[in-house]
Amino acid sequence: MTQVFFATGGSEAVESAFKLARQYWKLRGEAERTKFISLRRAYHGVGYGGLSANGTPSFRRMFEPLMPGFFQVETPYLYRNPFTDDPKKLAETCAMILEREIEHQGADTVAAFIAEPIQGAGGIIVRRPSTGRWCARSATATACC
């Protein structure tokens, strides 16, 4: 990392990250990269972009319709998921779901994937070190958590 951007709080940091991601792709000549993918049960603040990325329906409902171009995928929540009890298999499954969403949206239209290291508002969801990082790869994008 060569630069740091300070913000007054988490919501402002998230809004700034969205703007920086879109600006980055426009400056690189890929202005169609405007979509963001986040995790279900995620919380990204009280700003309009953060609410749009928010993965908790009860936090979003009062403010809908929200910004277009925000999509959520399943979170690697070992306690409450419909897939498996095995943390490693869950990480692989969530990575596959993320990869498929990137492909579905069109990898050339996705600006960023945003995820919390620990999902607090969603149920204190902590990634287990034994699962390693989970990554999704498409022809033109890689996202890791």
Q: Which helices and strands occur, and which strands form pairs?
A:
Blueprint: H1 10-27, E1 35-39, H2 48-53, H3 57-60, E2 70-73, H4 87-105, E3 110-113, E4 118-119, E5 125-126, E6 135-137, E7 142-144
Parallel strand pairs: 1-2, 1-3
Antiparallel strand pairs: 4-5, 6-7
Query: Strand count, sense and closure of the main sheet?
Result: 3 strands, parallel
Per DSSP E runs of 2 or more residues, the count of β-strands stands at: 7
Structural class: alpha/beta
User: What is the molecular shape?
Assistant: globular
What percent of the residues sit in helical stretches (DSSP H or I)? 25-40%
Radius of gyration: 15 Å
Order of helices and strands: HEHHEHEEEEE
- Straight-line N-to-C gap: 17 Å
Given as residue ranges, the uncertain stretches (5+ residues, pLDDT < 50) are none
The count of helical stretches stands at 4
Question: What would you note in describing this structure?
Answer:
With 145 residues, the protein is of the alpha/beta class. The chain is built from four helices and seven strands, in the order αβααβαβββββ. It has helices at residues 10-27, 48-53, 57-60, 87-105, and strands at 35-39, 70-73, 110-113, 118-119, 125-126, 135-137, 142-144. Strands 2-1-3 form a three-stranded parallel sheet, with helices on both faces. The longest helix has 19 residues, at 87-105. It starts with 9 loop residues before the first helix and ends with a strand.
